[in-house]
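pls ignore typos typing on phone
erythose-4-phosphate + seq
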Amino acid sequence: MKFFLDTANVADIKYWSDMGLVDGVTTNPSLIAKEGRPFKEVVREICAIVDGPVSVEATSLEIEGILQEARDLSAWADNIVIKIPFIKEGVKALPILKDEGISTNSTLTFSANQALIAMKAGTDYVSPFIGRLDDIAHYGMDVVADIMAMKNNYGFATRVIVASVRHPLHIIEAARIGADISTIPAQVLEKMFMHPLTDKGLESFLKDWRSVEV
Ligand code: E4P
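k done
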């Protein structure tokens, strides 16, 4: 399973890229706003650090605007993927952008039906938001399992990004299902490293080692 980082924070992206753990990045308007920096500057910095796809979201609600934004944004760097909200105008844009060679990520998807439509329309990536589903007492990971089954049944080339990840268990479940990608907030990636028995074991190994004559 590929690891994308779900952030627009350049320091975090650099840190985890240096660890060799970042296969791509996803941003959204809220993540960009959180950084308090000019949009284009942040995106170009991220694209220069990451040797993989970087999702940047279009905010227009009608097709002409979506297409124009997609064309403009994709010219900023070679590895930009245009995130398009799952609305009818957005779905109409997917095959057009595919024909133009612009990569797309169908975002704000919450059901297997929405993902099926996006895959049929030729999206390169589809992002089910599992944490937001869990928040309303709907098992988000069930939707991921359904989407992966549909993808495999019909051989769609779309890659499924498990998004809105909240904790390390989500990553285990995504990997168990065989999802293509998880997009992970930096604080969740940090938690995936942690185990008290690793710390305790290391402490006792180092203590015992001090008594050894080398
Ligand atoms: C996905 O691409 C989104 O950026 C993100 O995962 C949304 O997560 P949230 O529900 O934590 O805002």
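Residues 6, 26, 28, 107, 127, 129, 131-132, 163-164, 183 surround erythose-4-phosphate (CB under 6 Å). The two ends are 42 Å apart (CA to CA). more later
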